[in-house]
Amino acid sequence: xxxxxxxxxxxxxxxxxxxxxxxxxxxxxxxxxxxxxxxxxxxxxxxxxxxxxxxxxxxxxxxxxxxxxxxxxxxxxxxxxxxxxxxxxxxxxxxxxxxxxxxxxxxxxxxxxxxxxxxxxxxxxxxxxxxxxxxxxxxxxxxxxxxxxxxxxxxxxxxxxxxxxxxxxxxxxxxxxxxxxxxxxxxxxxxxxxxxxxxxxxxxxxxxxxxxxxxxxxxxxxxxxx
Length: 226
Prior knowledge:
Number of helices: 7
Strand content: 15-25%
Strand order of the largest sheet: 1-2-7-6-5-4-3
CATH architecture: 2-Layer Sandwich
Number of domains: 1
CATH topology: Alpha-D-Glucose-1,6-Bisphosphate, Chain A, domain 4
Distance between the termini: 33 Å
CATH class: Alpha Beta
Oligomer: single chain
Helix content: 25-40%
Structural class: alpha+beta
């Protein structure tokens, strides 16, 4: 998660906005406990890329939006909502700094097949195999969920020292009259057995990651709203 360090160093984090304004902007995004039985821990990708079942840093951010505020065409077919939400994560303002940082470091002839520019990120449906800014790759795409692998270049297919899974999900809750959006993270050390319960990130980085996640969430939901 070197980009988190870079983001904090570049902005002091408060540079994104005043603390009060940031709190107001992200106040509707809430973190809830992630169950140990959640699918993110019980799928073939987690087993394959975390072969020693090392401890994780994980979280789940949830945001609801009234269905009356959702663009109507996104409710016509189930998968359209999660695809637009995913496009908002990568093509929105919340990812703009990280995208530019990665572009300066890694964009070139060998990564030209990947998604880099905001228009392409905004228009993609994110099929399995899509590679994003040499840092993410789509592993799973269902009508309600898109899971990407993160932590290193998608061209490194084997188990990595730093690895993780990131899920974007969208559900229509008709009985409640809302759409529920989720950003789920699971980071771990892939290579080598971790002794004890050492977490893959220090506490300050976990905090920074959660602030960044809330920024991504607010940026993404704006791509699905009227």
